[in-house]
Amino acid sequence: MPEHEFAVWAPKPDVVRLDVEGTLHPMERAEDGWWRAVVDASPDARYGFVLDDNPKVLPDPRSPRQPEGVHERSQLWQPPADVWSDADWKGRSIEGAVIYELHIGTFTPDGTFDSAIDKLDYLVDLGVDFVEVMPVNAFGGTHGWGYDGVLWYAVHEPYGGPDGLIRLIDACHRRGLGVLIDAVFNHLGPSGNYLPEFGPYLSSGSNPWGESINIADAGADQVRRYILDCALRWMRDFHADGLRLDAVHALVDTTAIHILEEMSAETDSLAGELGRPLSLVAESDLNDPRLITPRDQGGLGMTAQWDDDIHHAIHTAVSGERQGYYSDFGTLEALAQTLRHGYFHAGTFSSFRQRRHGRPLDTATIPATRLLAYTLTHDQVGNRAIGDRPSQNLTTGQLAIKAALALGSPYTAMLFMGEEWASSSPFQFFSSHPEPDLARATAEGRKKEFADHGWDADEIPDPQDPATFERSKLKWDEVDEGDHGRLRAFYRSLIALRNEPDLADPWLDHLHIDYDEDARWFLMRRGAFAIACNLGEKDVDVPVTGQSVLTWGEPHIGTETTRLGGHSVTVLRT
């Protein structure tokens, strides 16, 4: 049996012992708080750590695998050397691409990496460039969104574990698809979080999801290393082409070198080593362009960021919803301003926040492709009280308008699984906490949160009810039916049009917009192309003419204007 060096950072306990297959071994502590022991162990040995006089065997904070869940022993695992077939994959940046966000557990009926592989040819035919998987790190229970992960290095076993993830990414690369992994470094979940027993992983602060991660207080150096090594692991060991970083505004870093800047530098270094581009896409609600400004220009060096302002501007203009954080949006003026400048709030007053918010984006130096445009995300659906999609409330014409505005814009585009065919499935918040008290608190907290906002508590689905998870799965048998199939074909054509040079132009200074607030028409010009939309129900004449390239509805093109029916859109070559 080969020797293996086990190591764990645990400055908090006075004694740490190593358990390998039920046998305890002493460990030696170094001055930096790391404990080590060299022990004979099989390549797939089960192991864990015993701290002080607590007899429970705890999993490794850097566990490579958790075959029996986050409360049990870890397992040694290394990716087989001959498992990859993507040696010819040269990768690509996400800038200007079309990204497809999906949740492994609800993307297919089986909810596994292997069943997702069966749908990759569909995604290739649709024309997307990247698959973005919602978190696949190990979390408590069998199913959930994944944002309550507690062992960030391990892959959720019900999805297929680390070997299944390798098969999925390898299959994506063989088809020319890049892969982004959603990584959560701003908090830890409530079920199976043993990290605070090892050391100061948590800070004295908090965020909406619990205690904050310690990235700037005493002992933070090793916690930062824990985060950075995890980020690099997804890209190095699993060949991911980048990460989507969850809610980076919750990473409170008061040090001189922000952890995101550090992550950006180390990611670029790894990209040079691997010989292919790697991308970091941040979710942030700060509207701070420094996030996507290169490091040599004083920024943090993120490749791109989610842009909720674009979502809000499109969704409210089309749907008419104005509640909550939508309150400042809804007009065509707001839509035009957001599409022209990237951010709506750019040092301006936000009525939702009751303060000034954001900072202007320098559109002459920062291309639009560093911002992501989308009509919905897992957040914008799942964080609604009943998880309803726009397809459950809007006409197909309104959905087509939203798609044309997002995909026809200069921004990097993102879809959420099933949006392209107006999936009838909701995407609700679901969890499967094994602890009864936690399960009850999650369900009650969800109901109270939305009841406080005026929803009937009886309408809010119980996240712990397995039916909530099941009803959130996509219904693939409706993909080609009627308007579902028509809309999918429309999306496919829109995505293909993005290859036209005028529509691939990343500079906002080349974008021209006209609109009529009362008549409810909106016109977006990009080079020789014009995207004309009628957001109202009555026919309107839009001051543009040309050859129709793609349409939803039946436009009547005259010599000076184009008449559009209610809730319709056409793409013209002018």
Automatic annotation (TrEMBL):
Reaction(s) catalysed (UniProt annotation): hydrolysis of (1->4)-alpha-D-glucosidic linkage in 4-alpha-D-[(1->4)-alpha-D-glucanosyl]n trehalose to yield trehalose and (1->4)-alpha-D-glucan
A biological-process GO annotation: trehalose biosynthetic process
Molecular function in Gene Ontology: 4-alpha-D-(1->4)-alpha-D-glucanotrehalose trehalohydrolase activity
Domain of life where this protein originates: Bacteria
Active site residues according to the UniProt entry: 246, 283
Region (Disordered): 53-77
Residue intervals of the Glycosyl hydrolase family 13 catalytic domain: 78-498
Listed CDD domains: AmyAc_GTHase, E_set_MTHase_like_N
Site (Transition state stabilizer): 379
Protein's pathway: Glycan biosynthesis; trehalose biosynthesis
SMART domains: Aamy (SM00642)
Biased composition (Basic and acidic residues): 62-74
Localisation: Cytoplasm
Enzyme class, broadest EC rank: hydrolase
Cellular component annotations (GO), alphabetically ordered: cytoplasm
Pfam family, one: Alpha-amylase
Keywords, alphabetical: Carbohydrate metabolism, Cytoplasm, Glycosidase, Hydrolase
Protein family: Belongs to the glycosyl hydrolase 13 family.
PANTHER family: 1,4-ALPHA-GLUCAN-BRANCHING ENZYME, MALTO-OLIGOSYLTREHALOSE TREHALOHYDROLASE
Protein's name in the database: Malto-oligosyltrehalose trehalohydrolase
Lineage: Bacteria, Bacillati, Actinomycetota, Actinomycetes, Mycobacteriales
Gene name of the record: treZ
